[in-house]
Specification:
This protein is α/β, with parallel strands linked by helices and 367 residues long. It is built from 15 helices and 15 strands. The strands form four sheets. Strands 7-6-8-11-9-10 form a six-stranded mixed β-sheet, sandwiched between helices. Bound molecules: 1,3-dihydroxyacetonephosphate and iron/sulfur cluster (SF4). 1,3-dihydroxyacetonephosphate binds next to loops.
């Protein structure tokens, strides 16, 4: 089911949560967490709001949260504070008795929605006509379970921003070419760092069902799906120039979902965990501009009050869907569990999960 279909089916949060104060909600959340103990597990992605992250049992980037979910067989309820594809991945990796709950069904990922199975199967047929049996599919975990299953079925794997280099290197030992979904930027930035020139990369445009490339088609090694993250695309070369002008000596660090031009001009690029670690190691009084989601940038600025930490884009870039998860929705999810009637359970179809798990496990074995 697509996010849009689920949004149509969503159940609206009862009005009484809107009438509660933050303190009242926090007290109830603490009570429920205490009473459930290890039967309840709350993973939180780094982009979540502080009001939610304070209740996370573990925080992490996509890779760490997938690993933690795979290793947790104690929790009966996993209340995933992140977006839909992360909750799906948790469901794929946990056992049948564990329920995964997303506090707000509207917490999707616009990038994941840029590749559906129908489009992907059509692209695969068209690309096979051009390249024969020389391709292996890799999908960024920011994709639907169906796309992960497609990759699993075709001997491919998932990747995260933490292990994309390793996975692309592995994939190129399996086949001559990679079909990389759905984020063109992560695919391009990763392949480029591994020494693959831009002329050896092409873009598959699912709207017009056409391969875009310059030069010799036989040299193409990486086929990039024309998807992107609308949050990270907002960081521009102009932002970098302005920051460097305003703060001489500034260090610029960005997420690899930013465009190739931005990543090339930045000093460092890496996953949310990588960004957090770099800021931790940074010298006191150093100046940083960070190109990623605003909740994380604000948190880093608060934690490192002996350093200057700014958003690379002064207008800040929120991920609206991540921000759907808030105190009222977290409490609503927890109270529904307490009542024995959990809301918003994420259940990946068994047949899809059977293949999707192959793709995710191929990654976890090598991550
Ligand atoms: P990380 O894997 O770096 O946490 O990124 C996830 C994400 O959605 C970035 O937009
Ligand atoms: Fe998706 Fe971008 Fe939000 Fe990450 S920041 S969850 S890629 S929309």
């Amino acid at each position: 089911m697509s996010i849009l279909e689920m949004m149509n089916e969503e159940v609206i949060i009862p009005a009484r949560y809107k009438a509660m104060t933050a303190e009242q909600m926090e007290t109830r959340i603490k009570e429920i967490k205490e009473s459930f103990g290890t039967r309840l597990y709350i993973p939180g992605h780094h982009y979540q709001k502080d009001e939610v992250i304070q209740f996370a049992d573990d925080t992490g980037d996509s890779l760490r949260l997938a690993q933690l979910s795979a290793n947790n067989n104690l929790a009966e309820y996993i209340v995933f504070c992140g977006v839909h594809f992360m909750a799906e991945t948790a469901d794929i990796l946990t056992n049948e008795n564990q329920k995964v709950i997303l506090p707000d069904m509207r917490a999707g990922c616009s990038m994941a929605d840029m590749a559906n199975l129908h489009q992907t199967e059509k692209a695969w047929v068209a690309l096979q006509e051009l390249f024969g049996d020389t391709m292996i599919p890799l999908t960024y975990v920011n994709s639907t379970a169906e796309i992960k299953a497609f990759c699993g079925k075709h001997e491919g794997a998932t990747v995260t921003s933490s292990n994309a280099q390793k996975m692309v290197q592995w994939a190129l030992t399996q086949k001559e070419r990679i079909f990389f979904l759905p984020d063109q930027h992560l695919g391009r930035n990763t392949a480029f760092d591994l020494g693959i020139p831009l002329e050896e990369m092409a873009i598959w445009d699912p709207e017009v069902e056409k391969l875009e490339y310059d030069g010799d088609i036989n040299r193409i090694k990486v086929i990039l799906w024309k998807g992107y993250c609308s949050v990270h695309e907002k960081f521009t070369v102009e932002n970098i120039k302005q920051m460097r002008n305003e703060y001489p000596g500034i260090t610029i660090i960005v997420h690899p979902e930013c465009s190739h031009e931005v990543v090339q001009l930045a000093d460092f690029a890496g996953s949310t965990n990588y960004i957090i670690d770099k800021l931790k190691e940074a010298e006191p009084n150093s100046i940083w501009a960070v190109g990623t989601e605003m909740n994380l940038v604000n948190r880093l600025a608060k934690i490192h009050d002996n350093k200057q930490v700014y958003s690379l884009n002064p207008n800040m870039c929120p991920c609206l869907t991540m921000n759907r998860i808030d105190l009222p929705h977290l409490l609503w999810a927890l109270e529904s569990i307490e009542k024995g009637n959990p809301i918003n359970e994420i259940t990946v179809d068994k047949e899809i999960a059977r293949y999707a798990v192959l793709a995710v496990e191929r990654m976890l074995e090598r991550a």
